């Protein structure tokens, strides 16, 4: 180990005396374990929310509902109010200048702009 | 304190001196992990709640664990290509307990734990943390670290209680908390959070940072590598603010350039101007010119010697041939044939022509002009020597040869005649045009112009068609749009031909025009190239004419293309390495109020207050009381302009002239830990904890109803 690394104590020691079970014993080397952590969404599904009493608060039912206001539309490029939408790229835009810009955009950028508001085409 | 510096916390030394009954207090926030002792004012250790597991380069790729922020300079010793920065959190819930374990390892190690942890633990969590997360967390604490007892409490509640103790807010009130991954609104009645009435929107500080980073890297694609998540976080903390009124702030940036410029901030990327090339001096130029001149002279000399050598050689060959001729002239018939055979010639005629050729090439080499007429005259006779000879004197082979020569002669003559005729026609037309011009210069001029524009239009159109069938629609994708019009037509014909079978009676070939289809189908359809050539030459003629008569005339083709050298690069300046943060300053934090901007279909934080009040199902008088004690907390609430904007937002959901009071938390970042530390220091803290035995007895069910009492 390089001396700077040792001096700054930046690495976690592989064994720690205060632990009852060491990490290496719990997660043996060479076993793929990246997959075992499911995402929160799946965990919540697996926990089966229907078994919980509906009148009691739980993680899912305290979520905010959608806004009562109609969503405002903003230009994907400039952020100004967007009265128009491009039917081809599906991007919203504020004025003709931006429209020209949109039509020059490569598809990758179009998708990245759409992804910002979760509207990109997802290929599965 | 959290992520801005790569500060590595030192190891605490007094762990063993702390009595075993003193609880350890952990504020397990999605962005920052804080750990310390109950009853103290400040957490002992705080670090960013992240883990990296890179490979160490020099020790055979051993995987190592790094918790918290690091000095980027030290990361060169590690291979980070197959890993990224990981967090144990998804939104505000811990779900990745392997990473959580590394973080706890590091936290207890920094706190100074040596042989055992051995203290009760109070850990914060989000509102209504799912049971599986609590179960896994307590399992980890009990089984891996051997802690005696554990309590979980809501960070926002601790923050509210702490501010209540400071006198900032009342027993009944609301907490608006803007955190790293989420925002919460929690009502409090008699100092206890009403979880049934709280609400959560899944938008927080991390979303603002992501949004800012994406927007900037889309705006400056060349600097995308410099715009890291950490840098975006830093820029967010430094420059972002909440617009008092989003729409009018947008109008300022749209219409008032001056004020917008005033509100724009810049981030200058490190940039060193490239060394400027000195223009070459006079001396240098003269030296270069001389060098060039010398090189040219050398080449010219070389060419001259070569030419004289060639001339000498040719002259020698010529004299040889002449000698041979003389020999032949002197010699008798049988002797002559043997001489001819030995020299490799068939007849005297042949030798003569060889001599002529030699003479010509000598002339050419010497650079003398040999008039075309003369050459034609000379060659006429010996090009077609048999034409004028009567048939009877010739052998059958010679007859054949004669026929060939006649054919050649007539075709060349015909070609010459046609050329002459064309020249005559041209001259005639020129003359007619001249006449028309003198007759009516105005009309003639008009006609010329009209014809010019016609032709140039035509040629332009054809060019366009060739280059791209429809180049007005850029960004086109898909195969069809990449073909030009002619190719498209060809494809269409091919497909129709391919699928034409069995459609009633086959009438193909009844009309002669049917066969034209094959011409169109053939790959090289250059049938209009001749026409094109003609048009172009005509255009050139008219252009020159127009230039003659009209001094103001500009050739469109030349004028339209000033052809700036496409490879000429504008020298880069510091400005090109400057990142402007204008509208983004308030556009990014606006997602807290309008989550729809990043595609989250939930209410914003101002509207959440009304939702929470509605869920409370209490009298208006209670709601009125709650609204006079609204605490704003959480690291993401630190943006300037947050309180006034929230106030005007909430006011829209409240009755006219209803009283409203918003309070900024004493320290929106640390209050949760401080509140928890104060709570854990209470003598009744023990009543709120559970032990390994409790957990073994009830399992996960223990957590379905688990809620601590915050007022002890």
UniProtKB/TrEMBL annotation, chain A:
GO biological process: chromatin remodeling; epigenetic regulation of gene expression; positive regulation of gene expression; regulation of ethylene-activated signaling pathway
Listed InterPro entries: INO80C/Ies6, Vps72/YL1_C
Main location class: nucleus
Domain Vps72/YL1 C-terminal: start-end pairs: 73-102
Pfam families: YL1_C (PF08265)
The organism's place on the tree of life at top rank: Eukaryota
Organism: Brachypodium distachyon
Name of the featured protein: Vps72/YL1 C-terminal domain-containing protein
Location within or outside the cell: Nucleus
GO CC terms of this entry: cytoplasm; Ino80 complex
Keyword vocabulary terms for this entry: Nucleus, Transcription, Transcription regulation
UniProtKB/TrEMBL annotation, chain B:
Protein location: Nucleus
GO terms (BP aspect): DNA damage response; positive regulation of macromolecule metabolic process; regulation of DNA-templated transcription
Chief location bin: nucleus
Basic and acidic residues bias spans: 372-383
Coiled-coil residues: 304-334
GO terms for cellular component: cytoplasm; Ino80 complex
UniProt cross-references to Gene3D superfamilies, sorted A to Z: 3.30.420.40, Actin, Chain A, domain 4
Region (Disordered): 1-22, 362-400, 415-440, 457-482
InterPro entries referenced in this protein's UniProt entry, alphabetically: Actin, ATPase_NBD
Keywords linked to the UniProt accession: Coiled coil, DNA damage, Nucleus, Transcription, Transcription regulation
Family: Belongs to the actin family. ARP5 subfamily.
Protein name, per record: Actin-related protein 5
Biological source species: Brachypodium distachyon
Gene that produces this protein: LOC100842636
